[in-house]
Amino acid sequence: MTGSSTPAVPSGVGVSPGRASGPVVRVAEPLPEPARGPAPADPAAEAARIRPAAEAVARQLRTRAAAAAGAARSVLETTAAMAVDPTLLAQAEKSVAERSLPAARAVHEAAEQVAEMLAAAGDYLAERVRDVRDVADRIRAELGGVAPPGVPVLTGPSVLVARDLAPADTADLDPELVLALVTEEGGPTSHTAILARALGIPAVVAARGVLAAAAAGATVDGDGGVVELHAAPVPAVAAPRSRGDWHGSGTTADGHPVKLLANIGSPADARAAGAADGVGLFRTEFCFLAATAEPGVAAQRAAYAEVLAPLRGKPVVVRTLDAGADKPLPFLDSGAEPNPALGVRGLRLAFDRPDLLRRQLDAIAAAAGDTGADVSVMAPMVATAEEAAWFADLAREAGLDRIGVMVETPAAALSGAALLDVVDFVSIGTNDLAQYTFAADRMTGALAGLNDPWQPALLRLIAMLADAGRERGTPVGVCGEAAADPALAAVLTGLGITSLSMTAAALPAVGARLARHALADCEQAARAALTATGADAARTRARDALG
What pTM, to 2 d.p., does this model score? Predict the structure, then answer.
């Protein structure tokens, strides 16, 4: 090993396989919290600075998006839209005008309000906290005339080390220059993990203490989750990367079919999902987040149709509104809850507001007719077969004839057979199912190991559902980002999962990996993982079995 070394970081979680060494480049930290004063001499003029700064940030991001392609373009376009979010800007301007805050402080506080709304969420929106703060930092940098935080210009192949990475930091990274990614925070479902797998870059997240070490070089083992830090620079060395050849259809080497689907949440995501067999998770929250009043059926219909239009003729699973006390919406007064993650969210929100759900189902059915997409619908946060049956009845009243539910709670997993008797399919949200199974907040980096989708207890719950589906001939899919790990995708296939839905950028690597292995190989790897005592052992055993 070249160069003197410090002890390996013990608590990292490997989220993208491979091994690489090279000089360390640190990603700039977020801007420090801005001061509350002094009060501006002219609050109106100070408030008027915010929107132009936000628009400048949006233009910069759109320029980068125009030079990017596929998922990178989608990420940058989405971040640009977030920079000029009307709710964020209006709240910041109000704080300047009414409380005489400096513009930078007002933007910071407005972003923190949004971040707090999302932080307790147990799904996709919780992972947007980092994005909101990143956008606020970029607007504040523009207001202050300083360079924004983020990835510096790389002059040679390097290992990037950061506290965490926002989508705009990473969307247009050059994989020829980025040897590996290491973050002190984040977890197996973070944006860093998703991006690294898509690019074939070794990555370790939740590497506690990596920023405190004065390292000039690093060796990253994305399989074992180990980061070896070196006091002196080390040569840039990386194992050959290959995302493999993918023919565009999900099958094992011996022809066993596995639907490879995309997770989407915006029109840009839908456009980036063209190579997928369809969509396994269409998140509808985008239609509600900035709304001060419930969008009417016509407004929802138009918004959903814009997303569904590029997917004509393809199967699309639309998830109904996943909001509630942990993701409050301005027009819903759910009241304060002592533990929002365990409160009234997802389908539970509709129990006292069935007309809210009926209107959304009517809009989904109408948008399906407008676009020709083959739409199914599923409900989030279902705990019992009784709840599933109630949802199925409402969906059929709206004219939707293929109905499913998400399995995100241990109760639903343990009731799999009963669920499958009342719906047409189930889709496992591995992110939330892990969080609730292990009682470990997935936004807490110190608990990332418990939220590792390779945990055998989680795999056993998945296996139970897959067995129940096989007995009834009913599809059981996975729509958590666990599906984006190529080796884990093979294990899930071996467990009996019939569809895998993930970010579109991860599809080629997963498709290529499945095509390398016969179903029997996947089943052998699944058995090896199920009998392991922990996530690391399960990962190692399965990969050894797959070869």
Answer: 0.72
